[in-house]
């Protein structure tokens, strides 16, 4: 018994490129023609077919092509028997018996769709043997479906004017795919499905995995660039090149994005967990030897890692500092990369220096932010950190980490970006491993600010990631 369904594709992503393709395809369907969506695996042929069936607004029948499919699976077959026995004993001495045995005919999906005017979606129809699809020729052209002869049924069915057919297929180079007869292709309008552009792939990742836009775009670009790198590493003509040609990166992007989002993995080329996910998903799709594919992936990801100066000193402060002796014998912090004043003291880049009043040699300190036992920042009054005779007083210990905060008006934009890093670092220092979402909520930062700060601290070697939590690196680790 055939089941009728209503097409309702969930979370269909409609970008300008997809909208143009759907409008173009729907034009032929409204004119009464059947369409054929052809393209590599992963380009969204089946999803678009269901979306078009939903736009037509008629009930839908769906068939999946298979080598074992027979013509009877499309049009129907005789199924079971009906027996009728009548015993007539109206006259006592006469007994009349009538015994009738008749086969039952059951309509299949194609027959039911042609009778009722439903929309037929024949997914990957070229996986079925060509002779099986011969029954479609008369239905598409003459609008007449021919059935095998039988008792009590018509051998011809007039196709309902509302009947529409949508076919999808993979390239003939795929395994398990048969060639299609020219007579059938001549009755279809064939539309080649292109590989989704970056905007469409990014929108699909956002809709399906709820990952942030920046990470979604980075994943799309990584997968696309890696595929191009693999193509350059193999001969232009060969089995590997043909396999790479007839495939789409969309499913790979979805897998990487889903795992990264659900396990809070930083989408960074130098994040070991993220690199392992990329290797597991991408290497098996290259059709290369595993060692060679792994070497290509490692070189590719290493080339994308930005060159940064890693912190090698065994200190906890994310701002690299040096100590120079002051006039009174105390150590005065000097920010590396700053300018020097006339007396040799360090001035942050971009600072406006008043040469008439040299800075004092006294150590400049500020109040360290207070946190509760759970690592949350307290809302109490912050310490007063200002410049008075070159000094800032503090009720507590000195923290070189907050040195740049007392130069709020004298710092470059690069130094101001370190405020978030310092705040995140102190929070993690007070806690025992936190997720990205917990850090954002506790410090009142948005997800982008938190991820940027964590990336910078991890590049400097100050943080480590275990599973989905982040920890301050130990002294042994830093040294």
What's the short version?
This protein has helices at 16-30, 45-56, 71-75, 109-116, 135-141, 182-185, 198-209, 213-233, 239-245, 250-262, 272-282, 290-304, 413-416, 418-430, 436-443, 447-459, 475-478; strands at 34-38, 60-64, 76-88, 96-107, 119-123, 144-146, 156-158, 164-169, 188-192, 321-325, 331-335, 339-340, 346-347, 463-466, 469-472. By secondary structure, it is of the alpha/beta class. Residues 308-411 and 475-479 have low confidence and may be disordered.
How would you describe the overall organization of this protein?
By secondary structure, the protein is of the alpha/beta class. The protein has 17 helices and 15 strands. It has helices at residues 16-30, 45-56, 71-75, 109-116, 135-141, 182-185, 198-209, 213-233, 239-245, 250-262, 272-282, 290-304, 413-416, 418-430, 436-443, 447-459, 475-478, and strands at 34-38, 60-64, 76-88, 96-107, 119-123, 144-146, 156-158, 164-169, 188-192, 321-325, 331-335, 339-340, 346-347, 463-466, 469-472. The strands form 6 sheets. A 5-stranded parallel beta sheet has the order 2-5-8-1-9, sandwiched between helices. A hairpin with a 7-residue loop joins strand 3 and strand 4. Helix 8 (213-233) crosses helix 10 and helix 15 packs across helix 16. The longest helix is centred in the middle third of the chain and has 21 residues, at 213-233.
């Amino acid at each position: 018994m055939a089941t009728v369904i209503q097409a309702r594709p969930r979370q269909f992503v409609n970008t300008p490129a997809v909208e143009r393709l759907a409008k173009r395809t729907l034009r032929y369907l409204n004119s009464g023609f059947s369409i054929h969506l052809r393209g590599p695996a992963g380009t969204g042929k089946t999803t678009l077919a269901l979306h078009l069936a939903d736009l037509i607004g008629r009930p839908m029948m769906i068939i999946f092509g298979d080598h074992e499919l027979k013509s009877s699976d499309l049009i129907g077959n005789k199924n079971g028997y009906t027996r009728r026995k009548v015993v007539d004993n109206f006259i006592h001495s006469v007994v009349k018996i009538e015994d009738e045995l008749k086969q039952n005919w059951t309509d299949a999906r194609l027959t039911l769709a042609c009778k009722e005017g439903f929309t037929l979606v024949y997914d990957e129809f070229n996986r079925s043997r060509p002779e099986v699809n011969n029954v479609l020729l008369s239905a598409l052209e003459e609008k007449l479906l021919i059935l095998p002869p039988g008792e009590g049924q018509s051998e011809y069915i007039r196709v309902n004017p509302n009947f529409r057919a949508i076919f999808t297929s993979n390239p003939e180079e795929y395994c398990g795919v048969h060639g299609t007869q020219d007579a059938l292709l001549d009755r279809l309008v064939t539309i080649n499905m292109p590989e989704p552009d970056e905007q469409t792939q990014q929108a699909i990742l956002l809709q399906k995995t709820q990952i942030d836009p920046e990470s979604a775009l980075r994943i799309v670009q990584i997968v696309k660039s890696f595929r191009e790198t693999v193509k350059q590493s193999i001969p232009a003509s060969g089995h590997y090149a043909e396999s790479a040609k007839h495939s789409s990166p969309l499913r790979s992007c979805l897998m990487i994005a889903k795992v990264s989002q659900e396990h809070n993995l930083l989408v960074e080329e130098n994040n070991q967990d993220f690199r392992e996910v990329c290797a597991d998903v991408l290497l098996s799709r290259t059709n290369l030897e595993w060692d060679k594919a792994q070497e290509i992936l490692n070189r590719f990801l290493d080339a994308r890692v930005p060159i940064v100066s890693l912190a090698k000193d065994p200190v906890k402060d994310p701002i690299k500092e040096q100590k120079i002796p002051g006039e009174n014998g105390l150590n005065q912090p000097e920010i590396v990369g700053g300018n020097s004043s006339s007396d040799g003291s360090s001035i942050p880049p971009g600072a406006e220096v008043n040469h008439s009043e040299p800075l004092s040699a006294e150590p400049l300190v500020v109040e360290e932010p207070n946190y509760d036992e759970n690592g949350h920042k307290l809302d109490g009054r912050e310490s007063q950190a200002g410049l008075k005779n070159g000094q800032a007083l503090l009720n507590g210990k000195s923290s070189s980490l907050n040195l740049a905060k007392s130069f709020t008006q004298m710092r470059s934009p690069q130094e101001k970006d370190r405020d978030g890093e310092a705040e995140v670092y102190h929070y993690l220092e007070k806690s025992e491993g936190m997720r990205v979402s917990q850090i954002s909520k506790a410090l009142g930062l948005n997800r982008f600010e938190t991820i940027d700060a964590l990336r910078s601290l991890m590049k400097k070697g100050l943080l480590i990631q275990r599973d989905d939590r982040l920890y301050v690196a130990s002294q042994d680790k830093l040294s």
